[in-house]
Amino acid sequence: MATMKKRNSYIFTNKRQSNRAIMATILGVITILSLLAVIYLTYVQKGNAPISYGLTGLLTMIMSLIGLVMGIITVLEKNYYKLFPTLGIVLNLISLTGVGFVVYFGMNG
């Protein structure tokens, strides 16, 4: 009966986490939270949103686009792990989709 021998070696790699990818993920989290806050505050005020809420939505869209570009650039590079760039791309896409829904339902609501 053959038994498997346990490996006692280390695997060294040059890969590391990218600061750009971490920033893309942080931007994704910030944009989702700010979008949810604007939606909630508009709901509490029964749909009466001041102009500052619209400005927050616009800034959310710009930050999401920046985070999306940063995530895509990092995921295409080979020397970095893929967790944070992928997470940043997904979060920023969710945020952009949320902004799109807000604009769509605001115009056709």
Short descriptors:
109 residues; mainly alpha
What is the topology?
Blueprint: H1 19-44, H2 51-76, H3 83-108
What does this structure look like?
Helices cover 72% and strands 0% of the residues. The protein has 109 residues and is mainly alpha-helical. It has one domain. The chain is elongated and about 70 Å long.
Pick out the low-confidence regions.
Answer: none
Main beta sheet: strand number and arrangement? none
Q: Please, how many domains?
A: 1
Cα distance spanning the termini:
71 Å
Characterize this entry briefly.
The chain is an all-alpha fold and 109 residues long. The protein contains three helices and no strands.
